[in-house]
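QA checklist item 7 of 12: single-chain prediction sanity check.
[x] sequence parsed
[x] length recorded as 112
[x] structure emitted
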Amino acid sequence: MSINQRVKEVRQALNLSQAKFAKALSMSNGYIAGIELEHNKVNDRIIKLICFTFHVSEQWLKTGNGCMFREEPNQLVELASYTFQQLKPEYQEYVLKQIEQLLEIQQTEKGD
């Protein structure tokens, strides 16, 4: 089974029309139809979106191994990591500084 077929299987398991599935992913119906007909490729961005939005196992979606859905979704961390990796190094530095400042604020609040 191809990754395109697994995308269709996810949609069907969720009992969603192509239109509702596409809307949840902020994609066009035509693009989803193209994926299911194997005319369009499933890139890493689409994989991450499907996994995050529908709590799908990335390993299952990519390979077919394991369970379709994650038992304990930690996809917020995965999405943050994926998004962070897409940033230019100077923006990554900025994000890290902001996180450090938030941790300091949080620590200060705990002391109150």
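[x] summary fact logged: Residues 75-111 form one domain.
[ ] second reviewer sign-off
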